[in-house]
Amino acid sequence: MMEMEFCYCCRVHHPKDQMRLYSTRQGMRWRCLRSIEAATQAQPVRDDFGRQQTAINRETASRQAEFARHVRAGTGAPPTAA
Ligand SMILES: [Zn+2]
Q1: Range of the domain at 32
Q2: How many independent structural domains does the chain possess?
Q3: Would you say residue 67 lies in a domain?
């Protein structure tokens, strides 16, 4: 009979040979390799994408604010840095 352990990540039981003890805030928990791999692969990509998107949004917002300031001041489009 195959030994099973409860996976705290999937909240189901998996065969023990597909699992590793994983350190959590609650202590050591069993977690399957599949969920560990999915988390370690997805995390950096998601973080990096989020950072890039935030930077783009901030730049777009500041450019729009700058343009609006010039329009309100009646000077037309902002001068281009020549
Ligand atoms: Zn699992």
Answers
A1: 4-36
A2: 1
A3: no
Secondary element (H or E) of residue 59: helix 33-73
Task: Kindly state whether residue 30 falls inside one of the protein's structural domains.
Answer: yes
10 alpha carbon – ligand 1 mean position (Å): 4
pLDDT of 41 above 70: yes
Query: Is 20 among the domain residues?
Result: yes
Q: Tell me the pTM.
A: 0.47
35 CA distance to ligand 1 middle (Å): 6
CA of 51 relative to ligand 1 center, distance in Å = 29
CA distance 8 to 2: 19
Distance from residue 50's CA to the centre of ligand 1 (Å):
26
Q: Is residue 16 part of a domain?
A: yes
What span, in angstroms and rounded, lies between the C-alpha atoms of 26 and 53? 33
